[in-house]
Design goal:
Pfam families: DUF3046
Protein name: DUF3046 domain-containing protein
Order of helices and strands: HHHH
Distance between the termini: 29 Å
InterPro entries: DUF3046 (IPR021408)
Radius of gyration: 13 Å
Shape: globular
Number of domains: 1
């Protein structure tokens, strides 16, 4: 998961304002008692930060995978 995909997933699941606040302020034990923002800056893969954030916020498993990915281009054939 790229950082841009992480950001889209956060915005899609939590909304732009609240998602940004969570990423900056919610300290997650599984990320070394850091925020998602701090963990990613320290080298934690964005996918791991996304999954830890989902776990901390009780996001259903069905909405954790694939979120934030760009829709595949449709073939114009």
């Amino acid at each position: 998961m790229r950082l841009s995909e992480f950001n889209r997933a956060v915005e899609h699941e939590f909304g732009a304002a609240y998602g940004g606040q969570l990423v900056r302020e919610l300290v997650i034990i599984e990320l070394g008692s850091r925020t998602a923002e701090q963990a990613i800056a320290a080298g934690v893969p964005a996918r791991d930060a996304w999954l830890a954030l989902c776990e901390a916020m009780d996001v259903p498993v069905a909405r954790r995978h694939g979120a934030g990915l760009v829709e595949p281009k449709k073939n114009r054939g």
